[in-house]
Amino acid sequence: MKKLVFATLMCVAAMSARAQVLTSETVNHIYSEAVFNTTNGDYCFNADKNGNDITTLYVYQKVSGPKGNVTLIPHLKHEYDYASDGKLNNRVTYRWNDRQEDWECISRYEYTLTDEIYYTEYSRYNHRTKSFDQPTDMMVYTLYPDDSINHVASYHRNSPSAPFQLISEISVNEQPWLLAIK
User: Fold this and answer.
1) Which residues lie below 8 Å from residue 103, measured CB to CB, with a gap of 6+?
2) What is the pTM assigned to this prediction?
């Protein structure tokens, strides 16, 4: 049930905004919004850049001390890899391991654009094999030539060897015309 609700929310979110192929510009915008909107929040952000491209985004949790001082505790790290045209290839996420005092890989999103179809695949990191498992979740966006969304389908499988099962899908028709009659 939890996955169905998540998949449905992802489809609704995709419909509420114009489809966008993720690029370095998109990542920069998301970072700027996060920094701007969380000034007084529980988290703080920092980034490493290569030119204008964010290559690593750090998320720190703010912890207030007894004297009002604030300590930043590492929380998450996202590493971004781009194609030569600036499109996002993948994002690898790490969480801070307090016991080892080091970053621990947890997941990867891979993004693929082919003709008018945009794929997003989610894979978990397997610590035993020290590699990513086959994707367990996938979103497939069918786009119109102007990059607006035509159709969104969400798939999930319970194990990397199982076939994908359709969780939800929605077709997006053109915007309805509103008619005012006097």
Assistant:
1) 74, 77, 94, 95, 96, 97
2) 0.77
